[in-house]
Specification:
This protein is mostly helical. It is about 50% helix and about 5% strand. The protein contains 18 helices and five strands. β2, α4 and β3 form a beta-alpha-beta unit. The chain binds zinc ion. The site of zinc ion has 8 residues, from α1.
Protein backbone atom coordinates (compact mmCIF):
# COMPACT_ATOMS: atom_id res chain seq x y z
CA UNK A 1 0.00 0.00 0.00
CA UNK A 2 1.81 3.07 -1.28
CA UNK A 3 -0.47 5.30 0.80
CA UNK A 4 1.58 4.37 3.87
CA UNK A 5 4.37 6.68 2.71
CA UNK A 6 2.27 9.79 3.25
CA UNK A 7 0.18 8.79 6.28
CA UNK A 8 -0.40 11.73 8.57
CA UNK A 9 1.10 11.28 12.03
CA UNK A 10 0.26 13.11 15.24
CA UNK A 11 2.99 15.60 16.14
CA UNK A 12 2.70 14.65 19.81
CA UNK A 13 2.05 10.89 20.08
CA UNK A 14 2.77 8.03 17.64
CA UNK A 15 -0.79 7.57 16.37
CA UNK A 16 -1.23 7.98 12.63
CA UNK A 17 -4.08 7.93 10.13
CA UNK A 18 -4.51 4.14 10.40
CA UNK A 19 -5.92 4.50 13.94
CA UNK A 20 -9.74 4.16 13.89
CA UNK A 21 -11.72 7.41 14.11
CA UNK A 22 -8.61 9.60 14.31
CA UNK A 23 -8.63 13.25 13.30
CA UNK A 24 -5.99 15.98 13.54
CA UNK A 25 -6.42 19.63 14.47
CA UNK A 26 -4.74 22.65 12.85
CA UNK A 27 -1.66 22.13 15.03
CA UNK A 28 -1.33 18.52 13.88
CA UNK A 29 -2.35 17.10 17.28
CA UNK A 30 -4.65 14.07 17.15
CA UNK A 31 -8.08 13.83 18.77
CA UNK A 32 -6.82 11.20 21.25
CA UNK A 33 -4.19 13.59 22.60
CA UNK A 34 -6.93 16.23 22.97
CA UNK A 35 -9.15 13.64 24.67
CA UNK A 36 -6.29 12.97 27.09
CA UNK A 37 -6.17 16.69 27.98
CA UNK A 38 -9.90 16.61 28.73
CA UNK A 39 -9.48 13.54 30.91
CA UNK A 40 -6.66 15.23 32.84
CA UNK A 41 -9.14 17.98 33.74
CA UNK A 42 -11.94 15.54 34.61
CA UNK A 43 -9.66 13.23 36.61
CA UNK A 44 -7.12 15.54 38.22
CA UNK A 45 -3.89 14.38 39.86
CA UNK A 46 -2.07 16.32 42.61
CA UNK A 47 -3.93 17.84 45.57
CA UNK A 48 -7.33 17.78 43.83
CA UNK A 49 -6.89 14.09 42.99
CA UNK A 50 -5.85 13.29 46.57
CA UNK A 51 -9.00 15.01 47.85
CA UNK A 52 -11.23 12.97 45.53
CA UNK A 53 -9.47 9.75 46.52
CA UNK A 54 -9.77 10.54 50.23
CA UNK A 55 -13.47 11.42 49.93
CA UNK A 56 -14.23 8.26 47.94
CA UNK A 57 -12.32 6.08 50.40
CA UNK A 58 -14.32 7.63 53.26
CA UNK A 59 -17.52 6.73 51.41
CA UNK A 60 -16.24 3.17 50.89
CA UNK A 61 -15.53 2.79 54.59
CA UNK A 62 -18.99 4.07 55.43
CA UNK A 63 -20.60 1.66 52.94
CA UNK A 64 -18.54 -1.18 54.41
CA UNK A 65 -19.78 -0.74 57.98
CA UNK A 66 -21.09 -3.95 59.46
CA UNK A 67 -19.54 -5.97 56.66
CA UNK A 68 -16.32 -7.94 56.39
CA UNK A 69 -14.81 -5.97 53.47
CA UNK A 70 -14.91 -2.45 52.01
CA UNK A 71 -13.69 -3.14 48.50
CA UNK A 72 -13.07 -5.89 45.94
CA UNK A 73 -9.87 -5.63 43.90
CA UNK A 74 -9.22 -7.91 40.94
CA UNK A 75 -5.71 -9.38 40.97
CA UNK A 76 -3.70 -10.72 38.04
CA UNK A 77 -0.17 -10.66 39.43
CA UNK A 78 0.48 -7.63 37.21
CA UNK A 79 1.86 -4.27 38.28
CA UNK A 80 -1.39 -2.25 38.41
CA UNK A 81 -3.46 -4.69 40.42
CA UNK A 82 -0.58 -5.49 42.78
CA UNK A 83 -0.04 -1.81 43.47
CA UNK A 84 -3.77 -1.26 44.08
CA UNK A 85 -3.68 -3.87 46.85
CA UNK A 86 -0.85 -1.98 48.54
CA UNK A 87 -2.57 1.37 48.06
CA UNK A 88 -5.93 0.22 49.40
CA UNK A 89 -4.61 -1.60 52.44
CA UNK A 90 -1.45 0.26 53.46
CA UNK A 91 -2.20 3.80 52.38
CA UNK A 92 -5.95 3.98 52.87
CA UNK A 93 -6.62 1.31 55.47
CA UNK A 94 -9.38 -0.34 53.46
CA UNK A 95 -10.45 -3.91 54.17
CA UNK A 96 -9.76 -5.60 50.86
CA UNK A 97 -11.08 -8.78 49.27
CA UNK A 98 -8.94 -9.79 46.30
CA UNK A 99 -10.67 -11.57 43.41
CA UNK A 100 -9.03 -13.65 40.72
CA UNK A 101 -10.27 -15.40 37.59
CA UNK A 102 -8.02 -18.25 36.47
CA UNK A 103 -8.40 -18.88 32.72
CA UNK A 104 -5.82 -21.74 32.94
CA UNK A 105 -3.13 -19.61 31.26
CA UNK A 106 -1.57 -17.90 34.30
CA UNK A 107 2.19 -17.58 34.14
CA UNK A 108 4.23 -18.99 37.03
CA UNK A 109 5.46 -15.48 37.85
CA UNK A 110 1.89 -14.18 38.08
CA UNK A 111 0.91 -16.89 40.55
CA UNK A 112 3.98 -16.19 42.69
CA UNK A 113 3.33 -12.44 42.62
CA UNK A 114 -0.27 -12.91 43.76
CA UNK A 115 0.75 -15.24 46.59
CA UNK A 116 3.56 -12.98 47.82
CA UNK A 117 1.52 -9.80 47.95
CA UNK A 118 -1.62 -11.34 49.46
CA UNK A 119 0.45 -13.01 52.14
CA UNK A 120 2.49 -9.91 52.97
CA UNK A 121 -0.64 -7.74 53.19
CA UNK A 122 -2.79 -10.43 54.80
CA UNK A 123 -5.56 -10.11 52.21
CA UNK A 124 -8.21 -12.80 51.55
CA UNK A 125 -8.69 -14.16 48.04
CA UNK A 126 -11.87 -15.09 46.16
CA UNK A 127 -10.90 -17.19 43.17
CA UNK A 128 -12.78 -18.80 40.31
CA UNK A 129 -11.17 -21.40 38.04
CA UNK A 130 -12.87 -22.19 34.74
CA UNK A 131 -13.13 -25.82 33.63
CA UNK A 132 -10.04 -26.38 31.49
CA UNK A 133 -11.72 -28.26 28.63
CA UNK A 134 -14.63 -25.86 28.50
CA UNK A 135 -12.29 -22.88 28.23
CA UNK A 136 -10.27 -24.46 25.40
CA UNK A 137 -13.52 -25.13 23.49
CA UNK A 138 -14.65 -21.50 23.85
CA UNK A 139 -11.16 -20.26 22.97
CA UNK A 140 -11.22 -22.45 19.84
CA UNK A 141 -14.58 -20.96 18.80
CA UNK A 142 -13.08 -17.46 18.86
CA UNK A 143 -10.16 -18.56 16.68
CA UNK A 144 -12.57 -20.17 14.20
CA UNK A 145 -14.71 -17.00 14.14
CA UNK A 146 -11.64 -15.06 12.92
CA UNK A 147 -12.38 -12.06 15.15
CA UNK A 148 -9.64 -10.24 17.08
CA UNK A 149 -11.31 -10.57 20.51
CA UNK A 150 -9.86 -13.96 21.53
CA UNK A 151 -9.42 -12.69 25.11
CA UNK A 152 -13.00 -11.48 25.44
CA UNK A 153 -14.21 -14.64 27.25
CA UNK A 154 -11.54 -13.94 29.89
CA UNK A 155 -12.16 -10.18 30.05
CA UNK A 156 -15.89 -10.70 30.57
CA UNK A 157 -15.29 -13.44 33.13
CA UNK A 158 -12.89 -11.18 35.05
CA UNK A 159 -15.53 -8.48 35.33
CA UNK A 160 -18.15 -11.04 36.35
CA UNK A 161 -15.90 -12.58 39.02
CA UNK A 162 -15.34 -9.17 40.62
CA UNK A 163 -19.12 -8.75 40.88
CA UNK A 164 -19.56 -12.33 42.13
CA UNK A 165 -17.04 -11.75 44.93
CA UNK A 166 -18.64 -8.42 45.84
CA UNK A 167 -22.20 -9.78 45.77
CA UNK A 168 -21.29 -12.80 47.89
CA UNK A 169 -19.87 -10.64 50.68
CA UNK A 170 -22.15 -7.60 50.34
CA UNK A 171 -19.27 -5.37 49.18
CA UNK A 172 -20.37 -2.14 47.50
CA UNK A 173 -17.21 -1.15 45.66
CA UNK A 174 -14.91 -2.62 43.02
CA UNK A 175 -11.57 -1.01 42.19
CA UNK A 176 -10.38 -1.22 38.60
CA UNK A 177 -6.70 -0.91 37.76
CA UNK A 178 -6.96 1.05 34.54
CA UNK A 179 -4.85 4.19 34.18
CA UNK A 180 -5.49 6.41 31.18
CA UNK A 181 -2.12 8.04 31.89
CA UNK A 182 0.00 4.93 31.41
CA UNK A 183 -2.23 2.55 29.49
CA UNK A 184 -4.20 4.74 27.14
CA UNK A 185 -7.66 3.96 25.91
CA UNK A 186 -7.82 1.70 22.90
CA UNK A 187 -9.49 3.50 20.00
CA UNK A 188 -13.13 2.47 19.44
CA UNK A 189 -13.16 -0.08 16.64
CA UNK A 190 -10.19 -2.18 17.72
CA UNK A 191 -12.08 -4.43 20.13
CA UNK A 192 -15.56 -5.15 21.34
CA UNK A 193 -16.72 -7.28 24.23
CA UNK A 194 -19.91 -8.37 25.90
CA UNK A 195 -21.37 -11.56 27.26
CA UNK A 196 -23.84 -12.10 24.43
CA UNK A 197 -20.97 -11.89 21.93
CA UNK A 198 -19.24 -14.76 23.77
CA UNK A 199 -22.44 -16.85 23.67
CA UNK A 200 -23.00 -16.11 19.98
CA UNK A 201 -19.47 -17.01 18.91
CA UNK A 202 -19.43 -20.21 20.94
CA UNK A 203 -22.84 -21.24 19.59
CA UNK A 204 -21.87 -20.56 15.99
CA UNK A 205 -18.38 -22.05 16.06
CA UNK A 206 -18.50 -24.47 19.00
CA UNK A 207 -20.93 -26.52 21.04
CA UNK A 208 -22.42 -23.45 22.73
CA UNK A 209 -22.14 -24.97 26.20
CA UNK A 210 -21.05 -22.54 28.92
CA UNK A 211 -21.19 -23.90 32.46
CA UNK A 212 -18.17 -22.68 34.42
CA UNK A 213 -17.14 -19.54 32.52
CA UNK A 214 -18.64 -16.61 34.47
CA UNK A 215 -21.00 -14.53 32.36
CA UNK A 216 -22.05 -10.92 32.55
CA UNK A 217 -25.49 -11.20 31.03
CA UNK A 218 -27.56 -8.04 31.04
CA UNK A 219 -30.04 -9.26 33.71
CA UNK A 220 -27.17 -10.38 35.99
CA UNK A 221 -25.32 -7.13 35.48
CA UNK A 222 -28.43 -5.04 36.18
CA UNK A 223 -29.04 -7.03 39.37
CA UNK A 224 -25.49 -6.39 40.56
CA UNK A 225 -25.86 -2.67 39.90
CA UNK A 226 -29.49 -1.95 40.81
CA UNK A 227 -30.12 -4.45 43.61
CA UNK A 228 -26.67 -5.08 45.11
CA UNK A 229 -25.60 -1.47 44.42
CA UNK A 230 -22.04 -2.37 43.47
CA UNK A 231 -20.09 0.60 42.12
CA UNK A 232 -16.78 0.90 40.27
CA UNK A 233 -13.86 3.19 40.91
CA UNK A 234 -10.52 3.70 39.16
CA UNK A 235 -8.07 5.00 41.80
CA UNK A 236 -5.10 5.22 39.41
CA UNK A 237 -6.91 8.04 37.57
CA UNK A 238 -6.25 10.42 40.47
CA UNK A 239 -2.47 10.65 40.71
CA UNK A 240 0.58 10.69 38.48
CA UNK A 241 1.02 6.97 38.35
CA UNK A 242 4.68 6.27 37.59
CA UNK A 243 4.74 2.73 36.30
CA UNK A 244 8.50 2.16 36.25
CA UNK A 245 8.88 3.54 39.77
CA UNK A 246 5.95 1.39 40.93
CA UNK A 247 7.55 -1.78 39.57
CA UNK A 248 10.76 -1.04 41.48
CA UNK A 249 8.76 -0.29 44.62
CA UNK A 250 6.79 -3.56 44.37
CA UNK A 251 9.98 -5.55 43.74
CA UNK A 252 11.78 -3.98 46.72
CA UNK A 253 8.82 -4.20 49.09
CA UNK A 254 7.16 -7.50 48.19
CA UNK A 255 9.65 -9.43 46.04
CA UNK A 256 7.28 -8.86 43.13
CA UNK A 257 8.70 -9.89 39.75
CA UNK A 258 8.41 -8.17 36.36
CA UNK A 259 7.28 -10.50 33.59
CA UNK A 260 8.43 -8.46 30.60
CA UNK A 261 5.47 -6.56 29.17
CA UNK A 262 2.07 -5.03 29.70
CA UNK A 263 -0.59 -7.72 30.31
CA UNK A 264 2.07 -10.41 29.88
CA UNK A 265 1.37 -11.99 33.26
CA UNK A 266 -1.08 -14.25 31.47
CA UNK A 267 0.09 -16.51 28.64
CA UNK A 268 -3.06 -16.16 26.53
CA UNK A 269 -2.87 -12.34 26.83
CA UNK A 270 0.80 -12.52 25.84
CA UNK A 271 -0.14 -14.70 22.87
CA UNK A 272 -2.85 -12.24 21.73
CA UNK A 273 -0.64 -9.16 22.11
CA UNK A 274 2.66 -10.48 20.79
CA UNK A 275 1.49 -12.86 18.10
CA UNK A 276 -2.16 -13.14 17.13
CA UNK A 277 -3.29 -9.50 16.97
CA UNK A 278 -0.09 -8.31 15.34
CA UNK A 279 0.34 -11.05 12.77
CA UNK A 280 -3.28 -11.66 11.84
CA UNK A 281 -4.95 -8.27 12.38
CA UNK A 282 -2.09 -5.77 12.24
CA UNK A 283 -3.07 -4.43 15.67
CA UNK A 284 -0.08 -3.50 17.84
CA UNK A 285 -1.23 -2.40 21.29
CA UNK A 286 2.11 -0.69 21.90
CA UNK A 287 0.81 2.24 19.78
CA UNK A 288 -1.83 2.87 22.40
CA UNK A 289 0.45 2.21 25.39
CA UNK A 290 3.44 4.25 24.15
CA UNK A 291 1.20 7.12 23.03
CA UNK A 292 -0.31 7.26 26.51
CA UNK A 293 3.14 7.31 28.11
CA UNK A 294 4.23 10.15 25.79
CA UNK A 295 1.16 12.18 26.76
CA UNK A 296 1.88 11.52 30.43
CA UNK A 297 5.48 12.66 30.02
CA UNK A 298 6.88 9.22 30.87
CA UNK A 299 8.33 8.46 27.42
CA UNK A 300 9.72 10.70 24.68
CA UNK A 301 8.29 10.48 21.18
CA UNK A 302 11.68 9.62 19.68
CA UNK A 303 12.14 6.77 22.17
CA UNK A 304 8.67 5.47 21.34
CA UNK A 305 9.38 5.59 17.60
CA UNK A 306 12.61 3.65 18.14
CA UNK A 307 10.95 1.06 20.37
CA UNK A 308 7.96 0.49 18.11
CA UNK A 309 10.31 -0.35 15.25
CA UNK A 310 11.63 -3.29 17.26
CA UNK A 311 9.80 -6.52 16.62
CA UNK A 312 7.76 -7.81 19.53
CA UNK A 313 9.47 -10.72 21.22
CA UNK A 314 7.59 -13.98 21.05
CA UNK A 315 8.11 -17.32 22.72
CA UNK A 316 7.22 -19.97 20.13
CA UNK A 317 6.62 -22.42 22.96
CA UNK A 318 3.38 -20.58 23.76
CA UNK A 319 2.09 -21.04 20.22
CA UNK A 320 2.83 -24.75 20.44
CA UNK A 321 1.10 -24.96 23.82
CA UNK A 322 -2.04 -23.18 22.59
CA UNK A 323 -2.27 -25.27 19.41
CA UNK A 324 -1.94 -28.43 21.47
CA UNK A 325 -4.39 -27.41 24.21
CA UNK A 326 -7.00 -25.95 21.86
CA UNK A 327 -6.59 -28.85 19.45
CA UNK A 328 -5.33 -27.40 16.17
CA UNK A 329 -3.07 -29.34 13.81
CA UNK A 330 -0.41 -27.32 11.94
CA UNK A 331 -2.60 -27.31 8.83
CA UNK A 332 -5.68 -26.19 10.78
CA UNK A 333 -3.66 -23.45 12.45
CA UNK A 334 -2.44 -22.25 9.05
CA UNK A 335 -6.08 -21.96 7.96
CA UNK A 336 -6.94 -20.00 11.12
CA UNK A 337 -4.14 -17.52 10.47
CA UNK A 338 -5.09 -17.05 6.80
CA UNK A 339 -8.89 -16.97 7.19
CA UNK A 340 -10.61 -13.73 6.11
CA UNK A 341 -10.99 -11.31 9.01
CA UNK A 342 -14.36 -10.95 10.70
CA UNK A 343 -15.77 -8.25 12.97
CA UNK A 344 -18.12 -8.16 15.91
CA UNK A 345 -20.78 -6.32 13.90
CA UNK A 346 -21.37 -9.55 11.97
CA UNK A 347 -22.47 -11.32 15.13
CA UNK A 348 -25.26 -10.94 17.65
CA UNK A 349 -24.18 -8.82 20.60
CA UNK A 350 -25.70 -6.45 23.18
CA UNK A 351 -24.40 -3.43 21.24
CA UNK A 352 -27.75 -2.27 19.87
CA UNK A 353 -29.40 -2.90 23.24
CA UNK A 354 -26.72 -0.72 24.88
CA UNK A 355 -27.46 2.00 22.31
CA UNK A 356 -31.20 1.78 23.00
CA UNK A 357 -30.58 1.93 26.75
CA UNK A 358 -28.30 4.95 26.45
CA UNK A 359 -30.32 7.17 28.86
CA UNK A 360 -30.22 4.41 31.49
CA UNK A 361 -26.47 3.92 31.10
CA UNK A 362 -25.89 7.68 31.25
CA UNK A 363 -27.58 7.64 34.63
CA UNK A 364 -25.57 4.59 35.71
CA UNK A 365 -22.36 6.30 34.61
CA UNK A 366 -23.20 9.45 36.54
CA UNK A 367 -23.91 7.36 39.64
CA UNK A 368 -20.58 5.54 39.35
CA UNK A 369 -21.90 2.13 38.30
CA UNK A 370 -20.31 2.05 34.83
CA UNK A 371 -17.20 3.78 33.52
CA UNK A 372 -17.17 6.74 31.19
CA UNK A 373 -15.31 4.78 28.51
CA UNK A 374 -17.99 2.08 28.58
CA UNK A 375 -20.77 4.64 28.22
CA UNK A 376 -19.01 6.40 25.34
CA UNK A 377 -17.88 3.34 23.37
CA UNK A 378 -20.88 1.08 23.91
CA UNK A 379 -23.83 3.46 24.19
CA UNK A 380 -22.94 6.71 22.39
CA UNK A 381 -20.97 5.52 19.37
CA UNK A 382 -23.25 3.77 16.92
CA UNK A 383 -22.68 0.34 15.48
CA UNK A 384 -22.72 1.69 11.94
CA UNK A 385 -19.93 4.11 12.85
CA UNK A 386 -17.86 1.11 13.92
CA UNK A 387 -18.55 -0.63 10.61
CA UNK A 388 -17.62 2.52 8.74
CA UNK A 389 -14.22 2.72 10.40
CA UNK A 390 -13.56 -0.99 10.43
CA UNK A 391 -11.27 -1.35 7.39
CA UNK A 392 -8.82 1.24 8.70
CA UNK A 393 -8.09 -0.72 11.84
CA UNK A 394 -6.57 -3.37 9.65
CA UNK A 395 -4.57 -1.00 7.49
CA UNK A 396 -1.28 -1.96 9.07
CA UNK A 397 -0.74 -4.81 6.70
CA UNK A 398 -0.75 -7.97 8.80
CA UNK A 399 1.31 -10.87 7.54
CA UNK A 400 -0.55 -13.77 5.98
CA UNK A 401 -4.10 -12.50 6.43
CA UNK A 402 -6.54 -11.24 3.84
CA UNK A 403 -8.73 -8.32 4.80
CA UNK A 404 -12.38 -8.94 4.06
CA UNK A 405 -15.06 -6.41 3.24
CA UNK A 406 -17.09 -5.04 6.13
CA UNK A 407 -20.41 -6.71 6.79
CA UNK A 408 -23.28 -5.36 4.76
CA UNK A 409 -25.94 -6.68 7.08
CA UNK A 410 -26.71 -5.22 10.46
CA UNK A 411 -27.19 -7.68 13.27
CA UNK A 412 -29.67 -6.96 16.04
ZN1 LIG B 1 -1.73 12.22 19.35
Amino acid sequence: MAAFETLQECVRCIYDATIPRISFDADGVCCYCRQYEEMECDYPAGAAGRDILAATVAQMKQDGRGRQYDVVIGVSGGCDSSYMLHLAKKQYGLRVLAAHFDNTYNSRIAVENIQRILEALDIDLYTHVVDNEEYQRIYRSFFLASVPEIDTPTDIALAAVHYMAAAKHGVKWIWEGHSFRTEGISPPGWFYMDSKYVRTIHSKYGDGRIRTLPELTLPRWMKWMAVDKIRKFRPLYYFDYDKEGTKRFLADTYGWQWYGGHHMENRSAYFANNYYLVRKFGIDLRYSEFSALIRAGQLTRSHAVARIAEQKPFDEGILAEIKQRVGFSDAEWERVMCAPLSHYTRHRTYKQTFERLRPLFLMLYKMGYVTRSFYHKYCVLKDDQMVAIRPSCYLRQPSGATASEPAAESVA
